[in-house]
Write a structure and sequence with these properties.
alpha/beta, Uracil-DNA Glycosylase, subunit E, six-stranded mixed beta sheet, 6 strands, 50% helix
Length: 211
């Protein structure tokens, strides 16, 4: 399920409620935003990408997962977390009672760094506006940051994920829970238990909000 179809479904629901003016305005803004991201050439990654990986999921999801950057399979398909790391992410979500189709998933960077290297500072600076706009559109109640780059981008810091994982912090009044990136877990399977605890904590935060 891609983000645009979710957006259209949400806007149709608003329209059926009679919120015509808001639907037209929001639809125009969202389409313009998505096109802006797809055409972005603010950094060197525009030269090597196959697809811009915008993000996908439920437009008004209560929970949002933010990763680092697209990998090879994501770049090829234009969707986030569809490779091995994505399958592990889906498994962790399901084991914690979270549904991928009811969440929103994206990355800090919208283009793949060559050879899946770490994002560089200027690339994050060029792309973080898009991430913050996605947060503004989705308005999640809980954000799960996957790996240090997502967390450090939100809070403009330089923390190690091993130090801050599992600690709840507020970003614009939204609960943020940092945990390991699934790619890291594929290389360090002994940490999967800790990650599972974090996903269960994220589920608890959601339930607490809803009740």
């Amino acid at each position: 399920m891609n983000s645009l179809s979710e957006i259209r479904s949400f806007l149709l629901a608003l329209k059926q409620m009679g919120i015509e003016d808001l639907v037209v305005k929001t639809e125009r803004e969202l389409k313009s935003f998505i096109e802006e991201v797809k055409k972005c050439n603010k950094c060197r990654l525009a030269e090597t990408r196959t697809h811009v990986v915008f993000g996908e999921g439920k437009y008004d999801a209560d929970i949002m997962f933010i990763g680092e950057a697209p990998g090879e399979e994501e770049d090829r398909e234009g969707r986030p977390f569809v490779g091995k790391a994505g399958r592990l992410l889906t498994r962790l979500m399901e084991d914690a009672g979270l549904k991928r189709e009811e969440s929103y998933i994206c990355n800090v960077l919208k283009c793949r760094p060559p050879n899946n290297r770490d994002p560089e500072k200027d690339e994050i600076e060029a792309c973080k506006y898009f991430l913050f706009q996605q947060i503004n559109f989705v308005k999640p109640k809980v954000i799960v940051t996957l790996g240090r780059h997502a967390y450090n981008t939100l809070f403009e810091t330089d923390e190690k994920i091993t130090r801050i994982r599992g600690e709840i912090k507020k970003f614009r009044d939204v609960n943020v829970l940092p945990t390991y990136h699934p790619s890291f877990l594929l290389r360090n399977e002994s940490k999967i238990k800790e990650a599972m605890e974090d996903f269960e904590k994220a589920k608890y935060l959601l339930l607490r909000y809803r009740h």
